[in-house]
Amino acid sequence: MRKESAGPGLLSILLGAVAVGPLLLYGLSATSEEIITDLGINEAQFGLLATVCFACAAVGNATLGRLADRHSDLALMTVIFLIASVALGLAGVPGGYMVLIVAAGLSGVAQSFPNGVTNRILLERVPANRRIGWVGVKQSGVQVSQLVASLSFPLLAVLIGWRGTALLAALLPLVLLVLTWRILRTVPLLHPTRNAPATSDASSETPGPPRGHSAAVWALAAFGCLNGIGVQATNVYLPLFAVRELDFSLVLGGATAAVAGVVGVTARIGWARVMARGTSGPLLLLILALTALAGVGAFLGADATGWSPLLWTAVVLHGASALGVSVVLMSVLLRSIPSAKMASSSGVVTAGMFTGFAIGPLGMGLLISSGGGFTLGWLAVGVVYLLSTLLAVILVSRRRPGND
User: Fold this and answer.
1) pLDDT value, residue 262
2) How far from 107 is each of 18, 115, 315, 344, CA to CA, in Å?
3) I need a labelling partner for 272 at 20 to 30 A (CA). Which of 110, 157, 280, 404 fits?
4) When comparing pLDDT for 25 and 190, which is higher?
């Protein structure tokens, strides 16, 4: 088979691998009002779907990272696409709430490998001068998923129901799997081993002992956890907030998440370009945390006044900030971790993010189901972003001079 250099085909399957896992959850979120009514569940039970999904992803990332280091890129990518397809298909099977819980758990398992294996593919098959830029594109797969699901699920649900929409969506991972088998077999490794450092500035932002994971890797995981709480507390309930509190239609409510996804895609690509110019990761994390905090202020304003322009402002701030964090975290890892440990190190940081993702929706569901409603929920998200701001300040203060 003729060998080809890394190009758009490879980048598209990396983006697809990151995108397929969250597709089910974003689709469920976009049609949340219909699902809650159809299944006869409350907001906290709906939030549990996301919690189960992200808890499975967190456990998978924490426990399977070292296992992933020992398996081929093609094998891991195959697992990702097959499990994502099964999850979507199961969600489309007529059944009760517990069937949807199982589907959500499988969707989480499909999110256990993408960051590690796609980061490793970047190190092994993509020239160094293009890697950070590619991180922005492939990490935007999550927001591409959010955009596609938020627009298509409500529209298709009107025609074929939310279950029929999930069944139709199950075909997408299978198409991507076919492309993956073709492309990975034609793009060769740059080097014969997996032990070379990612870049010459391998200790610039994650200093630490050579064995195990450095303190900075764990700090990145902690930041990812805090940010993840706020991200998914917002993502999962954003359409519901728009429908219930601002009287948006189901389709327009889904559009709020779609807009956040569009802004998130642009933000991740943009922040990756900033990182590629050598900007400090901790400094960018501080900027993103402060912007996310401003977004929460806009959500509270929209909640208090019912003024839709404030909601759209909050959506944009959320997409530009909190949704851009993962690209900064992954870029810092690419600067500092050798490919032989990339899957496991990415797994630690991603497990932190998914732990936050698991906590956020359930916590938000419990809060908005209480007497405090969405106001109490947004205040809690604000506290979480304040904590992430303080952690970013600590990371910036502990950076050594000259390591920008």
Assistant:
1) 85
2) 12, 15, 25, 20
3) 110
4) 25
Q: What residue segments make up the domains of the chain, in order of their start?
A: 8-397
Whether residue 404 has pLDDT greater than 50:
no
Supply φ then ψ for residue 190, to 5 degrees. Answer: -75, -35
CA torsion, points 335, 338, 341, 344, in degrees to nearest 10?
10
Cβ distance 38 to 161 under 8 Å?
Answer: no
pTM: 0.72
Instruction: Give the fold, CATH level 3, of 8-397.
Output: Growth Hormone; Chain: A; (1.20.1250)
pLDDT at 198: 39
The helix (run of H) or strand (run of E) holding residue 181 is helix 171-184
Long-range contacts of 238-243 (CB under 8 A, 24+ apart): 238/29, 238/315, 238/318, 239/29, 239/30, 239/32, 239/33, 239/150, 240/29, 240/32, 240/33, 240/43, 241/299, 241/303, 241/311, 241/374, 242/311, 243/33
Beta carbons of 364 and 299 less than 8 angstroms apart? no
Q: pLDDT value at position 3?
A: 61
